[in-house]
Amino acid sequence: METEQTIDNLILEMRRGVIVLAVLSQCHEEQYGYSLMKLLSEKGLEIDQGTLYPLLRRLETQGLLGSNWRVEDARPRRYYQLSQAGQDDLPRLIHEWNSIVQMMQRMLES
Amino acid sequence: MDTLIDRYLTAVSENLPAKLRKDTVTEIRSLIEDALDDRSKAEGRPPDNEMMVEVLKQFGSPQSIVAPYLPEKYLIGPQLFPTFSLVISIVLPILAVLSMIGFWVGHIQPNPITGVELAANIAKSIGNMLSTVIQGFGNIVIIFAILQWVLPDFRIKPKEWDPRSLKAVRQPDKIKRGELITEIFFSLIGLIIFTFYIDKIGIYNYVNGQWTFTPILTSAFNNFIPWLDMLWVITIILDTILLRRGSWEVGTRIFAIALYAFGIGISASFISSIPYIYTLQGAFGQLGGIGILKSLVNQALIVAFAIAIIVNTIKIIQMLVNLIRGRINV
Predict the structure, then answer these.
(1) B interface residues, A as partner, C-beta within 8 Å
(2) Does B106 have pLDDT greater than 80?
(3) How many CB atoms sit inside 10 A of residue A57's CB?
(4) Using the beta-carbon criterion (under 8 Å), do A53 and B33 form an inter-chain contact?
(5) Where are the domains of chain B?
(6) Using one digit for the tens of pLDDT, what is the confidence trace for B48-65?
(7) Cα of B177 to nearest chain A Cα, Å
(8) B249 by DSSP, 3-state: which?
(9) Which of B24, B31, B64 sits opposite A34 (nearest CB)?
């Protein structure tokens, strides 16, 4: 039971590591919080509200995302999209991710 | 009438910092409403109270949804904590020692004190010391908490680190044979002199081709001799045990703490009785200014016994630390 919990926590930690890149990669087009959560879910990454929304704020504060409010269906929504800095930096993050994947594959194969 | 969502958002709002409140609450409202719409479509019925409960359960309690928006808060953060520990480890022992000295200097009495008074004073001095240390700890915590609050990113720039500056591994259980043998030797000397040759302690003068002798210790000093003898005998017993065992153990450490406390008691009792344990009248009575000389000697003796108290207090603290560390490492 204890081991099961430990493994669950380790998996959670690993998944947390990919969230930033996953979110940035889906923000080429404007997304609001709920639509982004659904998009990520469709692609296999379940992420809860408590993690996603503060992350969007943080990425905005860091300048990687921009946001603007729009009213749609009589409902104000905050849309997020990659900023210029985000567009410039994303390829570097993707490159780094690919390197990590290759490194880990080499490591696990051996 | 307010809905469950309104109540939820009010609770969220109350827990958010003012600058984030408006934006965040509006955003969370739209997210909840989106989720509610989705669920309503999926279930093919209009949203109702039950559905709101389900959606809000998914979002989690207001406190849990707010938590990630808030910066981590510390009374004393990890950046300041090493400095805080350092200050505590320096200031608290100093406060403890100063409190002890202050207490005993303030309890100098006109007459030699009895054993019961001594025990009561020791208890009071320990209570006084604990109270001072706790107050000091509280004040330091407040100062660091204010620093943390005013300068949340405060960090003392570390010096360039060199592995050669690493301290040698501590060996707290290792005994120092040379020190123990020296201590046994001087305890024996003290025991012999103060037990058998007490009447020989005084001022020797060579006047007109003749030696004269004037005792300086008074009968009040004689009251201390059994206590001093006990101190030296116990010291010799402890040191002999340590030499035989070859290292410090729990029992010998507790024995040593009791011995050092006993030493503090005797030193404190001496401080309380300094003016009465010796006399210069016979030796220097013929000189002018005997009062000034006596006052100077009194002060010198107070300093000497205060140093003895400090040394014994430090030794007790070291023993306690090693005792606790030993227990933790078991």
Answers:
(1) 23-24, 26-28, 30-31, 33-35, 38, 58-60, 64-65, 67-69
(2) no
(3) 20
(4) no
(5) 4-69, 81-163, 177-329
(6) 888 999 989 988 888 888
(7) 50
(8) coil
(9) B31
